[in-house]
Amino acid sequence: MRLFTHADVATFDPANPTARAILESQGKILAVGSVRELRDLASDTVRVEEIDCRGATIIPGLVDAHLHAGMYADTLADIDLRRVRSEHEAIEAVRAHARTLPEGVWVTGGRWDFNTWDRPEQPDRTLLDEAFPDRPVALWTIDYHTLWCNGAALRAAGIHDDTPSPRGGEIVRDEHGRPTGILREDAATLVERIIPVLPLEVRVDRLRKAQDSWLAEGLTGLHDIDGQATRETWEALRAAGEQRLRVVKYLRLEEFDWAKRTGWRTGRGDDWYVQGGLKLFSDGALGSHTSYMSSPFPHAAGEEPNHGIQIATEDVLRGQIAEALDRGISLAIHAIGDQANHHVLSALAANTERTVRAERSFGRVFRHRIEHAQFIQPADVARFAELGVVASMQPRHCISDLHLLDRLRPDESLAAYAWGDLAAAGATVAFGSDGPVEPANPFAAIYAAMTRADISGDPATTFQPERRISAYAAIEAHSAGAAYAAGLETRTGRISAGMAADFLVLDHDPLRGDGYDGMTGEAASEQALFEHAARVRDTRPLMTVVGGQVAHSR
Ligand SMILES: [Zn+2]
Ligand SMILES: [Zn+2]
User: In this structure, which ligand is nearest to the CA of 280?
Assistant: First the structure.
């Protein structure tokens, strides 16, 4: 039993919003109240460890509703090209990195972003082939929707001049029909699936390190959107007794057959590890110009208008959703462009009755979610609430996309990164990072939702200030919202009796600032908002408590 005392507890439980102490037993919250009340309650028990929080603030543990855990862990060791400013610099960095790897192994990693290069143009394989004639190289864009490969990687994947582009993807070719090395969306999986998986002990080691960093940043749980390899890694970490935050594990379409064979189902598991749903893709991403939009991307005269890539049509999605539901599996569907979101909502709507039937026959709730939901047609905003579809959003995408929004100027009538509009319409919003596309730090995401301005805190960069939300709403989306997205809202996400004892002890109160009201988001001035939001952004928890255990402290 542990008793946390002398804290300003923001419970996020509307029935009992504030308290001074929390009593924990066997990983769960036994009671929330005043210090005296809880000391009385605990007095019969012989062993109570009292932890004096000395006036610190406590909020619910934050949960990342969309994190690629294995990929994120890999980025701690892989080449990182985010800071290079040209193709040449990128090649030099890759060459230096390759020298640190064992002879002959694939060179992977990447996170390049041609939008930030001196000449903002997609690279090709020419210089890569000069640097690496025989060794396979495959480098992801920052959004992980485009792969830049050399000839050795293409050959290993069996991609030749006459290989057709797969449905939902593109093998980019030069004017002679020769693959340039750029593979978009589902074409990238042709190479991705043959990259040898690292040995399990290497993956476990990387995941353990990543877990430490997540706990230090204030995550008490995450929804892992990666595939099968990371599932094995989590299981190995768990078996070693080293899993220290709560995981909801999603699967990818490539693993659906495996899921069917093994009877894998949404909602199975225990307090630490729960099976989530199946992740599907309906389109690409904004930075790669592959998000599926009703209006075309800006294009030169004479160029074909590009509306992005529709990876799966509404018909295909409808069938995939039905098949998953019949197997007791809920859906998490990637949709960034407004037209993609429109079709996904319609495909889910067509499966409303099937969802109810599946819930009845499997005895579980199935929460369908749209991942990203970045651009939404005005008439579709209310459909999220009507259909009970969770908007799983990543506020940092908005502020990382500021330069893109400036250049691409998407249709202004669309609800863009509209977490506030969706919540006001009655939908549940769940926040996450989409790490490693963005850093995992949840406080930076809360900052982004509060300000919609660049990470350095320049108010002049704000995108649509009318869509800012309060600190309270942002924290709630990052805790209770994430819990709801996985059907776990009765177990985690708020500080109340019976819930898991997952919370953060902070030396700064995100809900109260000078001239800033964290409950309503009202600020006396832009300056007051940004001063407070910057402190929220820079928050490092004093303690991260998971299941009553102090999993991290500083
Ligand atoms: Zn995605
Ligand atoms: Zn993602």
Answer: 1
